[in-house]
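Bug report (template v2)

What were you trying to do?
Predict the complex of my protein with hypoxanthine.

What happened?
Run completed; filing so the output is reviewed.

Input:
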Amino acid sequence: MLSVSEVTSRGSYEECQTTADWLRSNTQIRPTVGIVCGSGMGGLAEMLKDPQAFKYSDIPNFPKSTVHGHAGQLVFGTLKGRPCVCMQGRFHLYEGYPIQKITLPMRVFKLLGVETMILTNAAGGLNQDYKVGDVMVLKDHINMPGFAGINPLAGPNDDRFGVRFPCMSDAYDRKLRQLAHDVAEELGYSDFLREGVYCVLGGPSFETIAECRMLHRLGADAVGMSTVHEVIVARHAGMRCFALSLISNRAVMDYDSEEKANHEEVLETGRQRADQLARLVSTMVSRLGNDNNNSF
Ligand code: HPA
């Protein structure tokens, strides 16, 4: 059950500052990179050197993770020498939190000095060329709850975070996408690396066949229940974003199909690709800021 304060708090500047101050006084690490681990991809956090972990339940103003497969802790450490903070488990609309609460960690990261966000998720493949186990670099998103007014930036705007009407046509950083393709080629991962459009829905029920067909026709390549809200808040606050979807199942598009989406399949696919995903992300992190123009 969510407590009253969990349902009423809205991730104000002051709340985020309290949380950031608490974290700063409990760790010496000053992260410039933030990572969000999706379902079954918590192993990414295990790559951090000299890790310092804080349970969500111990962090002031943080929601608690309620989903099986999400550890529910914030891990600070270094990845290839770079100070990072990693969410091992994230928050979703379907858990019943206000959308501003789901995205509170992005604002806390901003106040901690994070400049680059790397987000991962598990998603259903709508693109008929995608196979289970493929990894999709997000080039764009469709914010379906946003069409109904469910947007983390709805309500009064706090200019200390960002502008009232933030641009979203450049939500997913072009250079980081290119870097992902370059690194994937070096590591021999190009045959399973894709690039496409992610559509977010509220969940927790998986989509019907008619819904999958509709989303595919609207231009979505993959469908899931996360990431987009976080990206909107991170971009509002001026952080660069890069996101990956692990295609954990193929969305059912055919009335004769016997396939059914289920959460266990999502977790199992994550476990199988976990090491490769971790290598892809850690190699990308090691290259941030290392090109000639210092612009990655
Ligand atoms: N639909 C929505 N969310 C998901 C799916 C899916 O098929 N797979 C993993 N997350």
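What did the reviewer find?
Residues 122-124, 206-207, 223-225, 248-249, 251, 261, 266 surround hypoxanthine (CB under 6 Å). The domain at 4-286 is CATH 3.40.50.1580 (Rossmann fold).
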